[in-house]
Write a structure and sequence with these properties.
The chain is 37% helix and 29% strand. With 345 residues, it is an alpha/beta fold. The strands form 4 sheets. Strands 10-6-1-2-3-16 form a 6-stranded mixed β-sheet. A 5-stranded mixed β-sheet has the order 13-12-11-14-15, with helices on both faces. Strands 7-9-8 form a 3-stranded antiparallel β-sheet. The longest helix has 27 residues.
Length: 345
């Protein structure tokens, strides 16, 4: 099963396996850019164009897998954590979940795809369990399923993007000093137009917020500064074929703006919660690896910052172009988390 992450600017594919010691092995990874406006706010506006791009992605990766784990953006999913008695049968739990869901979902249950997951024992109610409910309009799920089926894949898992990214990030948190226990982690994902802050502690999501800022602003700065078309700017940015003064007049101001945006996001977190510090900032997304960004974030926030490589500690298969993978690794966070679902079902 592959992890297939489809965002507004690109599609990412990751295929993982396990060796005899159950260590994860990166078998394949690939990225294919998507045209501007093909996907907006999670909605697929240009279905055929996206299908063609996904076919190119699968061919480029060389995968032979026929099943996929995919995800919906959190903005189109309603999630709620509830407490239920432990010891319920699966059918009894389904009935309870549907009853609880009616209170939180502003649609008829006939119009939504509903799922739930038992997180574990409740920390506040002895003898009970915490259960996460997730629901989305059926057409949103059908759109993702339709994309997979159009390229000959079976969509076995439909996840939530933020859940998948947290799963992949969890591996890296475990590699921090002390196994990351009790550490306050600020996971900042830089998308094309939107960046998301998730604050985590011991696998618990404490806070989540989106900000309208991302790598597309760097592209717009290239268009304004050099007169490139949107497509030229994207291509040159990906290839690193940029004018000599790019670093000073475009990249440096963008890096400073990103540092300020991360600082601003953390200030919102501090002012709306009892917390006033984080232990680590982890950066992911297509722009996370820009030179100087981690230093700028630390300068603006005073907290240690590092770029997140979701493949850290994995074996790398011979077919993977390692230098290219390392350069693009922060972009694969969600796709990696989706691919990991294969081993958690």
């Amino acid at each position: 099963m592959i992890g297939l992450d489809i965002s507004s600017s690109s599609a990412k594919l990751v295929e993982l396996s396990q060796d005899r010691s159950s260590n994860l092995v990166l078998e394949r990874c690939a990225i294919e850019p998507l045209g501007r406006g093909w996907i907006n706010d999670g909605n697929i506006e240009n279905f055929e164009e996206v299908v063609d791009a996904l076919r190119r992605l699968v061919a480029k990766s060389g995968t032979k897998a026929k099943s996929a784990a995919m995800a919906l953006p959190a903005s189109v999913v309603i999630s709620k954590k509830i407490i239920l008695p432990s010891g319920l049968s699966e059918r009894e739990m389904e009935i309870q979940v549907e009853s609880e869901a009616n209170q939180y979902i502003p649609f008829s249950l006939d119009e939504v795809s509903l799922d739930f997951c038992v997180v574990g024992p409740s920390s506040t109610s002895a003898g009970d369990v915490e259960v996460v409910i997730a629901a989305s309009r059926k057409e949103k799920v059908s759109d993702r399923q339709g994309l997979a089926e159009a390229i000959g894949l079976t969509p076995e898992v439909i996840d939530v993007e933020s859940y998948a990214s947290r799963l992949a990030a969890g591996r890296i948190v475990e590699r921090l000093p002390g196994g990351g226990t009790d550490a306050m982690i600020a996971l900042f994902e830089i998308g094309a137009t939107t960046s998301t802050l998730q604050v985590l502690r011991n696998d618990e999501l404490l806070y989540e917020r989106d900000q309208v800022f991302g790598g597309a602003q760097l592209t717009q700065m290239l268009v304004r500064q050099y007169g490139f078309t949107q497509e030229e700017a994207e291509a040159k940015k990906r290839a690193g074929e940029l004018p000599d003064d790019y670093g000073q007049v475009v990249l440096h101001p963008f890096i400073e703006s990103m540092g300020q945006e991360v600082e601003r996001a953390l200030k919102f977190f501090f002012t709306s919660t009892p917390h006033h510090r984080v232990d680590y900032i982890l950066l992911a997304g297509g722009s996370a690896g820009l030179p100087g960004l981690t230093e700028a974030v630390t300068n603006h926030t005073s907290f240690p910052c590092q770029v997140l490589n979701p493949f850290e500690g994995m074996e790398i298969a011979r077919g993977v172009r390692e230098k290219k993978m390392l350069r693009e690794a922060p972009s694969y966070l969600t796709a990696c988390g989706l691919a990991m679902r294969r081993f958690l079902r």
